[in-house]
Amino acid sequence: MKRHAWIFRLLLPLTLLSACAVTAPDLPQSETKPPEKFVAQDILQNLSSVKAAGVAGVRWWEGFNDPILNELVGKSIQNNFQIAAAAARVKEARALLELSEAGDSLLLELDAEVSGQKSDRNNNSSNNTAGGSSGNNARDERSALLGLGFTLPIDLAGRVEQEVRAAAANLMAEQAGLRAQIIETSTAVAQEYLRLRGNQKQLAMLRESVELQEKTLAIVQARFESGLSPELDVRRAETSVENLRASIAPLQQALQDSRHRLATLSGQFPGAYEQLLRPDGDLPEYGLGIPVSVPFQVIQARPDIQLAQARFAQAAAEVGVAQADFYPSIELMANIQIGSTAINSNPATSLLIGSLAALLNQVVYDGGARDARLNAAMARAEGALAEYEQVLRVVTQEVENSLTAIDSSTLRQTALGKAVVSSKRSFEQADALYQLGLVSFLDVVDAQRVYANAEQALATEQTNYATLIAGLFRALGVQS
Fold it and tell me: Model confidence over 155-213: pLDDT tens digits?
């Protein structure tokens, strides 16, 4: 540091005599360049222009235009304990950075001393049996001292600077971890809420299918009682109704699980959102365009990339700390004392005492401990770089997979929509022909089953599409 330049000149000869020659190892470097665009870039482009209402911002969940969803995400960001823990780690990292920055600060010490002492010395003494006396000279010493001392560490090898860099990188990593946790939590809340609404829709459709088949069962029973249908048709109709009814319980359980998880994500105990989420609601559709990004922009935005970068920077700084152990540590110590002292009734004498010293510590032999620490630090840096490289590829993979999954879901919904229309017509025709006695009841049951399954499959895929949209924002690194 510049403010220590005169001290460097003073101690340089000692340093040159005692420092070990250390060749700084070359740190690994990343040469990875992200692709210019995604393989599925055209899908992302279509998603950005599919809506004319605008493009989503950082509060992307508002694009679903659902007040309850907005409320749940807001509460989760405010009350989620994983977010709170991540925020606490940021505070800790900031405090550790401040501690590292104080590592080369001036240490001042103030000492005060006031003392008084009286001593008797027998200069002339004799034994006097008749009440003889001895001659005594008493000396009274009094002193008062005020001392001011300081200790200044001299960071010749840059150890403190590297420790500060490591602490700063750790703070950046924890801040990135906090952002990642916020994205993860908001996405989890949105996806769980969308699944809940989708399951509510499926449950309502399933109950309608049960009611429809119960009506069919009533018709079959009436025909059986009139001798127009065999008992076999009645049993088939009962089986079909009960099979559909058996599917209700798993959906009800899934709904309860979703309510519990949403409460937990929002920092509440299960049961907190029973009144809010038990009534049925529509599955919201996303109504805004999605921002167009290229891999480089996603890499810059993703907090897990920032986390990996910060961890590598921290590991690199720790290599510097390990290198500094090969050099001597030096402390400059000074002390100044002012005060006065007096003997008997003599006038007080003023005192000014000063001292300056330098303490140099150098390890001569450590059995290879410093080499081992340096090698370990280098290995951690190599590992951090490898993790960074892996995250780069995982991030682009997540975006690619998310885009292709959305495109696949869109195509699947189109096909399922056509299947619902055709299966509904098929069931209506089979039911009409059965009542005329032109087809068997097995044809009706089969047509009804196909229609119900097509409706359920379409509802499931619509729910899946909504959750994929929410997942795409997490993959793109859009933050709240």
Answer: 667 778 888 899 999 999 999 999 999 999 999 999 999 999 999 999 999 999 899 88
| Interatomic CA distance for residues 472 and 456, integer angstroms | 24
- The SS3 of residue 151 is strand
Residue keyed to tokens 């010293």: 357
Q: What angle do CA 448, 452, 455 make, to 5 degrees?
A: 140
Place of tokens 């209506």: 428
pTM of structure: 0.80
Structure tokens at 197: 């609404």
Q: Which among 264, 284, 263, 266 has a CA at the least distance from the CA of 275?
A: 263
Instruction: Collapse the DSSP code of 303 into the 3-class scheme (helix H, G, I; strand E, B; otherwise coil) and give the result.
Output: helix
CA distances from 467 to 71, 196, 409 (A): 18, 11, 11
Of 19 and 113, more confident: 113
Q: Domains of the chain (ranges plus CATH)?
A: 37-107+156-328+386-476 (1.20.1600.10)
Whether residue 121 contacts residue 61, with contact meaning beta carbons closer than 8 Å, is answered with: no
Mean pLDDT over 388-410 rounds to 95
Q: Cα separations (Å) of 328 from 17, 19, 49, 338, 394?
A: 10, 6, 64, 33, 44
Residue carrying the six token digits 């869109």: 410
Helix (H/G/I), strand (E/B), else coil: 340: strand
Residue pair 463/198 in contact by the 8 Å Cβ criterion: yes
Q: What is the pLDDT of residue 223?
A: 82
Q: Which two tokens stand for residue 407?
A: 């495109």
One-letter amino acid of 324? A
Average pLDDT over the chain, rounded to whole? 82
Provide the edge-to-edge strand list for the sheet that holds 349-361: 107-124, 135-154, 329-343, 349-361
pLDDT in the model for residue 108: 56
* Strand (E) or helix (H) holding 354: strand 349-361
The single-letter code of the amino acid at 250 is P
pLDDT over 80 (residue 1):
no
